[in-house]
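Q: Here's a chain of 103 amino acids. Please give me its 3D structure as tokens.
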Amino acid sequence: MARRDRKRRDARAAEKVSCCRVESLVSVDERGQMVLPKDIRERAGIRPGEKLAVISWEQSGTVCCISLVRAAALTEMVQGLLGPMAEQLSASRSELREGGKAR
């Protein structure tokens, strides 16, 4: 039993490690351009002309991490987060109108 639990823990640890790893190193040229390596583009299914959003995180006022997210995926995430809020606001406005409290 303990051996099985240890294997499960090891598998979970391996999954966590595999989600964040150094895939490759890229250089930035004098114009600020970088090339995303072909093998990563192919594995990710990124095609020429596809839009990627650049997301950055700051720590103590310094950008410490930069990630790329497909623009379409980011749009879906934002709609998923803001959609219910927009529906709730719309419902609240309708209730106010029906109650005669708003114009």
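Q: Can you summarize the key feature?
A: The chain has a mean pLDDT of 83.
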